[in-house]
Amino acid sequence: MGLFGKMFEKKVCSVCGGEIGMLGNRKLEDGNLCKKCAAKLSPWFTGRRGSTVDEIKAQLDYREDNRRALEDFNPTTTLGGETKVILDEDNRKFVVTRASNFREANADIIEFGQVTGVNVDIDEDCSEEQKQNSQGEYVSYNPPRYIFSYSFKLTIHVNHPYFDEISFDLAPSDVQTNPDHPLPMDKKPDPMTCREYKIYKRMGREIREALTEAKKQARDEAVAANAPKSAVVCKHCGATTIPDRNGCCEYCGISVQ
After folding, report:
1. With 50 as the cut, is the pLDDT of residue 10 above it?
2. Cis peptide before 172 (omega within 30 of 0)
3. Could you give the CA distance from residue 24 to residue 18 in angstroms, rounded to a whole number?
4. Which residues pair with 169 in a beta bridge?
5. Which pLDDT score, from 0 to 100, does residue 6 have?
6. What is the dihedral of CA 84, 106, 162, 11, to 10 degrees?
């Protein structure tokens, strides 16, 4: 078969067995993936081309387990803007999603203890504003004038089998601090005088602080649960017992606190 024939050769999805259209193939390390199966993968997953068919099948199994687990996810706090960080503080879990319905979107459930760090990056940029001279050419002002803008990106680093970070923009577009009044470089305005700048900076800080504190609590609880416990006498049944992780007597089940 020549090159032209191979281009139009029908391909079959190595996962579901369905036929793949001309522009619908998603290459795997040892096979092919259709658009329908690819759409079921985690939105934070970036290693598709280097994954084997078996690895993709394993992830799709995980995604179905995640969908079922979302039925018991109980939102208690919602942070963010277009992209939301939704916390289930009772079960020490959270999801990150742009979807209006996180269950329909099958947002990945992350445990607080899986968080390894949270970064908020604010990047500054400037674009020169020019004017037209008498010949209709665009030339610089003297001194040059600029419009200053800022982007806000939040990255949650996680210990997860299918991705190691969740990164998204806090603002839907760059925030311009002086869009109607271009200024020389030495006259750059203080961004904290811009309402939008303060909103997105505060939003990033709130998410970072919430997840950092949640991570700390989860780690402290894990350490406490694994720490050796001393035997005590239960005031209810009189037995000498080592309390379980909930502080209850191993014999009568009542709290020894």
Report:
1. yes
2. no
3. 11
4. 153
5. 53
6. -130
* Pick from 251, 247, 224: nearest CA to 237: 251
Separation between Cα atoms, residue 245 and residue 168, nearest integer Å: 37
The mean pLDDT value for 110-138 works out to 95
Do the Cβ atoms of 185 and 167 come closer than 8 Å? no
Q: Where are the domains of the chain?
A: 3-70, 114-225, 228-257
- Give Cβ neighbours of residue 4 (< 8 Å, ≥ 6 apart): none
Collect all residues with Cβ–Cβ distance below 8 Å to 54 and sequence separation of at least 6.
none
Q: Are 125 and 153 in contact (CB under 8 A)?
A: no
User: What token pair was written down for 125?
Assistant: 């940029």
CA atoms of 234 and 238, how far apart (whole Å) = 5
Question: Cα–Cα distance between 170 and 119 in angstroms, integer?
Answer: 12
Contacts of 94 (CB under 8 A, 6+ apart): 85, 86, 87, 88, 109, 110, 112, 211, 214
Altogether, the residues listed in the chain come to a count of 257
CA–CA separation, 140 vs 130, rounded Å?
A: 5
Which residue, chain included where needed, has tokens 């979107």?
Answer: 105
Give the lowest-confidence range in 42-46, 203-207, 235-239.
235-239
pLDDT value of position 190: 96
